[in-house]
Amino acid sequence: YIIVNAAAERVFGYGPGEMVGLEAALVIDESAHQTIVDAIATQSTDFHYVGTIPMRRKDRQLIYCDAAFQRIEQDGEPALLVTATDVTGRVQVERALERSESLFRDGFERATVPTVILDAAGCFQRANAAAAALLRIDADALVGRAFLDLLDSECEADAEALRGHLRGEGSVPLPVATRLRRGDGEFAWVLASVAPLGGPESGFLAELVDQTELHHTIQALRESEERLAFALDATTDGIWDWDVQSGRIVMNARWFTML
Question: What's the CA gap between 213 and 219, in Å, rounded?
Fold first, then answer.
């Protein structure tokens, strides 16, 4: 270094004049030194932005700087004017966000509850494996499709209720019990909940709790009870049912007429 201003000395933790005469390799972290050398050797323009590089303070603490250099002449000799802006705080925040996002993605993919991320317009941005299996549509094929388009056409009231929550005006309590059309044309009965991820433009996280098996079980039980009632009404026999535990006895109408 030939000339170093006070701001650079403060950034790198040196006293006045201590950086003059130092080799650049003592300030630039060894992991980025070759990148700087190659940029200087190959760049033909007068000004070149190198990017965010790791650098070292006097106490060897690692910091990050946005660095750029400009070719100049100093006392008739070629030289480089180097600017370095300390962006350590920004880099630390970005890396913390990356770790947080990585943890979120991992938890999202591993979730056993079918879960999807919708954009602000209500279109799929991402679906976990459980959601793709429930909808029987490949996760990549869902991206860009409108979530509400999967609702059965007869479920307009449910669609309007969910649409209100996507607009931030939801008045119907969540979750909404509705019916979705799967990729193979069959239906899935779900409890659908949507919640904003952040601000109005951040999108939504939606959970789809599968109720299909429960629906079919209830439907089968209802049909069985209807068939039993029909059989009881059609017979001319008196029929009674005794619940041993409660001691309750139920008799059909024919039994009473016989008595």
Answer: 10
